[in-house]
């Protein structure tokens, strides 16, 4: 196992020497534990072999749309709504030391935390061909869930979707035992350079446990959380530089946002 890891690290610069690579995953998830309806969207894992960024495809599309809106000063909230994602985070990995930075927004502020996940992978004898790749199964426990991954040594990159990494090859598929979350590699393509979603303003770096506590408080009572952040009467609907709403519209939008936030009660990491 250790020898395979060493070989894969040595092979990475050769694999990614000329161009960066984008691995496109289909993500199937159940964000609401009270609703069995599954959501599906795509996410990108962009890497140059030394670092990688994992983020929702719609994040990149929203960034592009916002740039056009700012240039034309024409803010169309309908278009923005169509590009909403259930993965409102970015994960930047340092593949050399297997550490990462998780970035997201809670309320109106942007936060980040550093983590070096210790994946205790158990490699299983089961093998299966997925698409063009011969893969092998592995198992681990992470974030309060049991996860099964299928990795391929045909792509000697110790990386995968979300925070997953550390196997002797690219993770082609990973899903939890309950079937709430699944990441499936759909496409691989070369890109000119690693893409990083746009950010405006500073991120507040805090410990992971503090971030988790804040996220729980926000999910439980969004309005109080916004007010505690100094948002006055804007609530979940405020900010963003778009058009203003009359009080009735503001109240309705606030209710919609509260309901949406509270429906995100089945996170990837349960603890």
UniProtKB/TrEMBL annotation:
Residues 1-17 form the signal peptide. Coiled coil: none annotated. InterPro entries: GLPGLI (IPR005901). Residues 249-263 have a biased composition (Basic and acidic residues). Keywords: Signal. Residues 229-243 have a biased composition (Gly residues). Residues 223-271 are annotated as: Disordered. This is GLPGLI family protein. The lineage of its organism: Bacteria, Pseudomonadati, Bacteroidota, Flavobacteriia, Flavobacteriales.
